[in-house]
Each structure stands twice: as structure tokens, then as C-alpha cells.
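Researcher: Next entry in the queue.
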Amino acid sequence: MFLVLQASIGYVQKFWGPQIDPRLAQYLTNFLFGSGQQKTPTVDFNRFAELYVYNVRGTVEERMMVTYNCLGMDYNEDVELPFQLLKEYCESIVSTYIKIVKSSSSKRARTWIEKGFKANASHVQALGEAVAASVGGDLDSPQHCTAQQLSKWLQSNILLKQVAELVYVNLYGINKRAGDESPTPLPPAASSLLPGPEGLDPMPDYPAFIDMSHIVWINAHLPQKYQHKWRFLFSTHIHGESFSTMTGRIIDQGPSIIIIEDSSGYIFGGFAAVSWAFGPNFTGTDEAFLFTCAPKMRIYPATNYNDHYQYINHHTKTLPNGLLMGGQFQFGGIWVNAEPFGEGSSAESCSTFRGYRRLSREPSFRIRSLEVWGVGDKPVCDKDEETEIVSERSSVLATRKSERNFLKLIGKTQASDGFAEIETPS
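Model: Structure for this entry, 426 residues:
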């Protein structure tokens, strides 16, 4: 017995219309019904199912076929895709994902939105462009991409895969219960690309200067173990323009991201893979990276050429006082002065990070906004560890005491009775 269902173009567009970018609706119509002379008035169940299966569980070849068909082309290894077409395709997928996030009943999404984090159309478009840009290797102006480049891109672009999967799971109502008309709940944070915000509750009017698209872009490139949570640590708009205040709030807080907006509106920053700590030496690991969010979204990962990932110092006479990520003193990828706070610089070149280009509009910049977020769970500090050890030892000693009392009751003695008990730290 075969299940045979058919749907018209009008029905499909009506079914998906409210929750989908109009461009993506057209691309999916191309896949389902064909385009040009091959266009048909209806689609059968198998073709409708293939759209979901190929995008969510499909092989690279199947995903390539979907991409070509959605763009009104037959898959052919000799046919190049114009980058502009691919960019608009990625923008439509990202735009639909953001629509899903904004309509979600998820507490995680609602908190970001209620605290003033918007999804500006220009930033959503920039996220789509960034997803597409890596296909040709030239991050600024690729013209066309070959089938070989597209195949490599589909294999390596994790962000595209995750966004597309979330979009199709939502469009096909996979997470919905029967009769449930509410928006599809977002999956757990790690797979939704949107972290859970922590520390914003006391601030009803948070002065947000980054966009939901920026959060998705940065979070997608963090190590997966940190993607589930962002912990608010510092903002110049809330805590004031003070290097001492900033360092007091970010030292020993685990891995973190620093995000800066300069006076020209450029937004950029870096991921510090270990806790910030005062000292004369560079620290960090090759998980560190620099990024830009506006006007374009780009990621600059570590080259392993040197280990100048992060440095911070204050009130020293012989070493620079400030915060540095990448490069050399006075020529860093990001340099933030301690005194006067509010000034910084971004060098023309930085050997610490691959593909690096100056992050700010001008080599020297004024800080309009700066914030720092801890990522992942808050690390356990030494005092917490000591308290935990004392608690564990106390628990063990209490257990041993009750065991000795029980042994005495039944007329037994312990061979270790003569030994001193472990002293707990004072």
C-alpha cells in the first residue's frame, strides 16, 4: 500500500507563509514543483518528504541537489553557482531561522528579546552573507562557486547545517504535539545556536548594542561546551568607563568574550579561552579567536604561529597597562588602554590569528560600548573547591564515626582506631 498525497503551490505557500521568509518560500517552491518549463501544479508526498530528509539527514550530494534545485537549476558538476544567488539563498534560511526564534515561546529567546536585543534586518542579512562567504575562500568578493567548492562548503559549514536543520524541523512541525498551534519550542541551547542569558534579570532596561544575529554568529564559533550559556559580567553603559571596575568583574571568571563598538559603529571582539589574570605574560589557548559583527561578520581563528592570545595588566611601571588580544604590545589585534580608559587600537596585521584584517574602522578608536560575557558555566574558584573538600572530608569522618559506634555496639573494634583523623583545613 502506498501513501499518495498531493498539494498545490497555493496550499504550500499558505501552510508555510507566516513563518517563512518569502524568498525561501520561492526557493522551496522551485524544489517541490520545479521551475520554468518543468513546473508542475502539484507535488506528491515523496517529493515533499525528500525536502525535509535531504536537508536534515541527507548526504552532501543530496544537500547539493536541494541547493541547485531550490535555485532553479539542475545539479551538474560542471555548472557554477553565482555567489549572489547562493548568498540570497543563505540569507533566506537565516532570516527564517530568526523569525522562528522571535516567535518561539522559549524562555531563552524571550529573555534576549525582552532585554532589548533586536533582530535588525541588515544584521540578519549580514549573517546570511557571512554563512555564504566562505564557499569560495575569498571572504570579500567571490563571484562564482564550483560544485567542488560547494561540496566542501556543505561538509565544513556547521553553522549552515544547524540553522537549516532548525528551520526544517520547525517548518515540518516535528516538535509539535497533535493539535498544538503554538510556535515550535526551540531545542536545547547547544543545538539552537542561541545561548541562555544569565545575569540580566536585575536590569529591566539593558542597553543592548549587539543584535540577535551577532549572538548567533559568535556563539556558533565557541567550543560546544560553552555554547549553552552566556553570563553577563561587564558593560560600560552599566558599570561606567573604568578599567579597574572591568577587571574586577572579569578576572577569574573563566572563558569569556569581549565585544566592542567603536565610535564609527564597527562592532568586533574576541574570545578568550581561559580566565583573565593579571601578569607579565601572554596566556590562553589556540581555541581563542577574534571576530567582527558589523559591518561584516567574520571569524579569525588562531594560526598557532605564536601564543599571544590574551594579556591583561594594570598599575605596572615597566609593562603596558591594558588588555590585549593577539599580536604584539602596541600592535595588537585588540588593544584597550587602561588609562585613559575608552581608547583602543587594532593593528593592520596580526600573526596570531588567521586571515586577520583590522577590526575597527580606524587603527585607533574611541570605545562607544564595551561589554564582557563569561561563557559556559561559572568556574569553581579555589575557595569553592576548598569548601567542597572540607565538606567531603567532614562527611567521610561523620560516616566513619557512625560506623565505629555501630561496631562498638556489636562488640567489634577497628584496626585503625589508633590513627589520627584527618585534620580539616581551617
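Model: Residues 404 and 415 are 11 Å apart (CA to CA).
Researcher: Noted, moving on.
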